Amino acid sequence: MSGEPQGRAGRLWLRQRIELAESAAELLQRKLSILLDERDRMRLLAARTEKEWHRRCAETDEALLRTALLGGRRVLPPASGGLAKVTVEHTESMGVSHPARVVFEPPADAVRALGGTVLAPARRACRAALEAACAHAAATAAAAVLDAEVAATRQRVRAIERRRLPALRAALTRIEFALEEREREDGARLRRLSRRECP
Fold first, then answer.
1. Predicted structure pTM score
2. Do the domain assignments include residue 3?
């Protein structure tokens, strides 16, 4: 490794860096554990919301069919052209921002009671299906974000454990070997000097 101090100062510097790298790896391992739990929770939630979404879609199909059979095709209003409003609310898990929930608001003109009592159940079923789709989208997006962060955290841990720490430990070994050699040389030199001075 280039740029690190040599000698006793280098040994101290490397020991501190090794300690910091080990602490960083430990913290990242804890973060990874928490992220894995959260990701698994989001995956389960995504699976549940997907089932709910499909169930709501089937209910909507039935309600629309029933409405068409009871009131004819004319009871189903044409698309109004208004836009629904979707708001994504975020939360954080271990510093990772991800969707927590999606709020769906239908267009203002869709709230009006078109088609009377015949269309009301179909309208409620459609809204429930759209809300279920939004919940599924939020859970799926959160799981994907957490998946990406889990992969990035694993990569950081591997980089510290497989590259940074071995490099620091190898540099420390070289410095300690050099210091031992220097101490042996100094000891040998002192012994020779003491032999010369003794009569």
1. 0.75
2. no
Phi, psi (deg, nearest 5) at residue 60: -65, -45
Neighbours of 106 (CB within 10 A): 17
Q: What is the pLDDT of residues 176-194, one digit of tens each?
A: 898 888 888 877 777 777 7
82/110 Cα distance (integer angstroms): 8
Q: Name the nearest CA neighbour of 10 among 195, 182, 185, 191.
A: 182
Distance CA 93, CA 48 (A): 21
Whole-number CA gyration radius for the chain: 34
Tokens of 36: 């894995």
Q: Are strands 85-93 and 96-105 parallel, antiparallel or unpaired?
A: antiparallel
How many separate domains does the chain show?
Answer: 1
Residues spanned by the domain of 149: 17-193
Give every CB contact of residue 188 below 8 A, 6+ residues apart in sequence. Answer: none
73-108: per-residue pLDDT in tens? 666 666 666 777 888 888 888 888 888 888 888 776
149: left (phi over 0), alpha (psi -120 to 50) or beta: alpha
Within-domain flag for 113: yes
- φ/ψ bin of 171: left (φ > 0), alpha (ψ from -120 to 50), beta (otherwise): alpha
Residue labelled with tokens 């239908």: 106
C-alpha atoms less than 13 angstroms from C-alpha of 86 in its C-beta half-sphere = 14
Contacts of 52 (CB under 8 A, 6+ apart): 132, 135, 136
